[in-house]
Amino acid sequence: MYAVPDQAGQLVVVTGANSGTGKEAARRLAGAGAHVVMAVRTMAKGEQARAEILAAHPGANIDIRRIDLADLASVAEFADGLIADGTPVDVLINNAGVMAPPTRMTTVDDFELQFGSNFLGPFALTMRLLPLVLAAPAPRVVTMSSGVASYGRIRFDDPQWQRRYSPNLAYAQSKLADLMLTLHLAEVASRQGWNLMSNAAHPGFTRTNLQTAGAGLGRDKPKRTPFNTFGFLPSQPVGPGTEPLLFAATSADAVNGGYYGPSRWFGLVGPTVAVRPPRRARDAGTATRLWAEAERLTGVTRPAGAARS
């Protein structure tokens, strides 16, 4: 099991921290001494998760704050709250996501739900928090991708899946976009000389509620998706499934532009290793175009004081 190093003095923001890999990451980071901001959509679920973590780590320093990544106004409000506090963010973990709603759903801002929640919301959050992140001594931005990014495509002609919606392929597009955001931010950081590490992780086939409740945002009964029907494949519990994310966020061996995931059964389970991003994720031209499109759609650009690429 990966041992999270001492995190005393670190402020870590974890989205989707009330369940699954986000909750496990928050638990282990808080247990290692970090001040953890659990960024959640439903405050009651966040408070319940916080209580469970405090039961195991009574002295943990944990805050609960609301964010809905499917609502850009909520993203702005959350970021503004942290900016008002003025405390540098040592680690931003973009973990929250939704997986494969059977029918096309949209965000508050009328984006396809997965593209909006999994990519555009985290993009806007990262850009808004970038001044606080860059104010930390050795900051990291860690984004959760997925193995399905390997067959994702960025559909610039129809990124919102208004024609012939596919739950699986829309999810793959959003996770490829996450990985491209990670690698492009890493390249910008290197070019600008920022002491910023931007990296990514994927959990393999980890058993969480993302495959069931996540498909309906937890608002209705669990639904079967293309991802919760493969019972014959090896899978792992949330503990080891969170370790690539924790490695990316805390390990001294993690690198800028790194991508980490399980090592066995074609990346489904096992100890964490460095993973080569799929070829499409490494297409610099597509990444630059995607970044510009994300800026256009969200209305959020790199903040003043951070030179543009």
Could you characterize what this model shows?
Helix content is about 35%, strand content about 15%. By secondary structure, it is α/β, with parallel strands linked by helices. It has an eight-stranded mixed beta sheet with strand order 3-2-1-4-5-6-7-8, sandwiched between helices. Helix 3 packs parallel to helix 4 and helix 4 crosses helix 8. It is globular. About 5% of the residues have low confidence.
Class from secondary-structure proportions: alpha/beta
Query: Rg, please?
Result: 18 Å
User: Which ranges are low-confidence, i.e. pLDDT below 50, for 5 or more consecutive residues?
Assistant: 211-216, 218-222, 225-229
Give the helix tally. 8
Number of strands: 8
| Overall spatial form | globular
Q: In percent terms, what proportion of residues is strand?
A: 5-15%
Biggest sheet strand order reads: 3-2-1-4-5-6-7-8
- Determine the mean pLDDT: 91
Largest sheet, described in full? 8 strands, mixed
Helix content: 25-40%
Q: How many angstroms does the end-to-end distance come to?
A: 39 Å
List the helices and strands and how they pair.
Elements: E1 11-15, H1 20-31, E2 35-40, H2 43-56, E3 61-66, H3 72-85, E4 91-94, H4 113-134, E5 140-144, H5 167-192, E6 197-201, H6 238-241, H7 243-250, E7 259-264, E8 269-274, H8 284-298
Parallel strand pairs: 1-2, 1-4, 2-3, 4-5, 5-6, 6-7
Antiparallel strand pairs: 7-8
Helix pairs in contact: 3-4, 4-5, 4-8, 5-8
Properties at a glance:
single chain; 309 residues; alpha/beta; eight-stranded mixed beta sheet; 8 helices; 8 strands; globular
